[in-house]
């Protein structure tokens, strides 16, 4: 007899698959007993039931990915002992193969990082690889990478075990209960209404509805860009002698994984050119369902997959399965509080990794809900990173086919998505393209990555982990910034006008630095949470007594806007306007930047009249613009905030006037190399919500004595009171000019592993690759230790001597940018 629905609950979770049951389980582990899970059909009936159940690490390139993965593997291996319900977990091992030099180099780069974070990936020889997977043709394999502790589990059993554990903790689970509406009052989620008309009032609503989440969220105005796609696996008839303990094999060259399945072999495809499924809406009645296979489309991919295990052709096909899985535009999940509604959280868009990452994601979300702050870096998964562009039907239709292959294929550090492009383009796009720009993509913005001598040469001849064809052109841009002048289109930077009676109070409450400054001052500041962890790093410019300009990177757009809007008090008057589309930001930097601007402006640009970190309205040709004397590259320069109506004319004027000063267009690769020579930090890349400004070397932006304090002030005061930190962000320069750095390379001090780099680039002025990263020691990490220590960086298994510094190695006294 079904239990009646409660009329009220502390937390209601929509969806009874892996993510919903994991979230409920982890909430009860935190002591939250009043949890209700509502499943529209039966537990696991959406996509969980047909998952392959792989508990394998893949190539993980962030600390949080490793933490989420290892938590799930460890939990599934011991959950049966707690609940009495088996999970089917077996540590049969996991084997990845490299069949070309680029893949081998990538895996050698990643393996040390993964070992640091508890994943025992180690390289093995081709012979050892063949012994572990004797059914395969591995004659082209250069090396294997093996994790003996990884394996597989039964997705249905895992979910039922989690459900049992959640019930043991007090949670109630109701099947055959479809949620049709999230109840909203004054912008706050207050409960749900079911298809039968029943309502449950709740303090918190959590959407874990898998591929149905987008359409459910849309009814409440919530933006959840994810799209279901066809996902295939083939199961052969029984193969004589096939071991039940055959390791899971992943082969990026065939876009296939292979594992034993009831005596036969499963070939699972993550093929390029996948097919989106039901672009308009997922049928509400779809349960335990399959999709009719498209043999014509997947046939060539299966043929290639069989090429790795040709002996499997000698047995029949037991089943070609096609079922839906949901994918997000950037292949990272959608997790966290939604910006559109208070008291509403989400965890969906697992990109076919719902079993693998379900436990870790459920744990993260449970802590986020209960404690108000996530326990791990969430910058890459935070649901507020997307705009509504990415949820449109056309975007999902065009991006969808690329996603599966992108998950399993070979990866390169600078490779962008190729589909659903040109969503956000600066008005200067055509000018930049004609100037030889090669465009990459970030958060749907088209960004000039580097410039070729001619438009015809603006292509990547071959992606590589080593120097690519554009490397020398980028070096010329870098040298121009240090010797002459560069122009950078930075229109992708997010810009907000914050004005009104209480604008200063709001921004000062959010900011570690003091925002209540004289008119025309630019303030570089950090925003932190109650624990002192970064929420943003940005500039705030005071344009009037009650009007401010907030500028932050494109990767922080949604998060910054959400944080400002959420912190406006009920009795405060603040108007926040996203002015990004109306402003074209043109940056002019370099020793000759002043000479160039003086040629086109009547304004006094001298140090005395226009000091560093100030803003003024100036004329450029016919046009009046806001100029900010600030830099992210460590050189004299200005950000020109030009109304987009006039941007092309201003660009043409500057490029013509700049010819005599050696002006060059410069792209994102040069921005990265310049700023890393200066050791400038960048939220979401170098620092995240688990880091704090004190240890990150940004203590100078923290005003602990600021009248009225700020959010996180007490936490930062406690950190500072502990004295010299044991963990500090340092800048590193490789002493050899040949190796390249990208991030995740391990740091060694006196032979001991002490951290890893967050990011790297080539420092053309310093003469070698540079990077920044946190190093942690048992004792306080003093300046003397940094200066005298024997530092090394691991690059693909080879330790390279490095120099470390607390201060920027380039222009540490900031003479150039203040010149």
TrEMBL record:
Pfam families, A to Z: DAO (PF01266), FAO_M (PF16350), GCV_T (PF01571), GCV_T_C (PF08669)
Give start and end of each Aminomethyltransferase C-terminal domain. 728-811
Protein name (record)? FAD-dependent oxidoreductase
Signal peptide as annotated in the record: none
What range(s) does the GCVT N-terminal domain occupy?
Answer: 428-706
Family the UniProt entry places it in: Belongs to the GcvT family.
Species of origin reads Ruegeria aquimaris
**FAD dependent oxidoreductase domain: which residues?**
11-368
Q: Which UniProt keywords apply?
A: Oxidoreductase
Instruction: Name all FAD dependent oxidoreductase central domain ranges.
Output: 371-426
